[in-house]
Amino acid sequence: MSDPFSVMVEDERIQLAAFVEEYRTLIAGVLDGLTEEQARRRLVPSATTLLGLVRHAAFLESVWFGTAVSGASRAELGIPDTVEESFLPGDDETVDSVRRHYLQVCERSRAAVVGLGPDDTVSGRGYPITVRWLHLQVLRELAHHCGHADILREQVLAAG
C-alpha cells in the first residue's frame, strides 16, 4: 500500500497481516551491517544472540504457521524439538543463511493462510485455533523478540 495510513481502514485480516509483516521486517533487519562475530556475540547470561533471535523467529513462524495450520510435525518442518535449541545457530550458519532462511519461512507462513479469514479455525496442533489468534500470537512473539534485539544490537554496536 502506498499510503501508510490506508491500513487503518482496511478489514481485520489486512490489518493483522500488516502488523505481522512490520515485525517480520524488523526481525530480519536486526542483522543488517553486523559481522559474523557481532551477530553471534553473547552479552547476556542466556544463549541469546542476534543471530539466535532471527533463527528463533524462523522457529516460531514454523511452529505456529507450519504445525498449527498444516499439522506437519517439527521433524517434517526441520525445526528443533525445543525452544532452547531454536536459539542456537550451527557453526555452518551465517548472517546471510539465517536471514535467507527466515525470509523463506515467512513466505511459507504467508502461503499457509492464503484464503483463510480471521474467524477460520485450524487444528494442526490438536486443538482449534482461529487464524486471528494465530496472527496475534506470532505478532506478540515477534514484538517481544524485537525488543530483545533492539537492546542486544545497541550493546553489540557500542562494544564495537
How would you describe this structure to a colleague?
The termini are far apart. The chain has one domain (6-159): Up-down Bundle (Four Helix Bundle (Hemerythrin (Met), subunit A)). It is globular. Helix 3 (50-70) runs antiparallel to helix 7. It has 160 residues and is mainly α. It is built from 7 helices and 2 strands, in the order ααααααββα. The chain has a two-stranded antiparallel sheet with strand order 1-2. Pfam families: MST. It comes from Pseudonocardia tropica. This is DinB family protein.
* CA-CA gap between termini: 37 Å
**CATH domain class name:** Mainly Alpha
| Low-confidence runs of at least 5 consecutive residues | none
Class based on secondary structure composition and strand pairing: mainly alpha
Task: Encode the helix/strand succession as letters.
Answer: HHHHHHEEH
Summed up, the helix count is: 7
Give the oligomer, counting copies of the same chain as homo and different chains as hetero.
single chain
What's the overall geometry? Answer: globular
Q: Strand fraction band?
A: under 5%
Number of β-strand runs: 2
Mean pLDDT value:
92
Main sheet: which strands, in order across? 1-2
Query: Rg, please?
Result: 16 Å
Overall structural domain count = 1
CATH architecture: Up-down Bundle
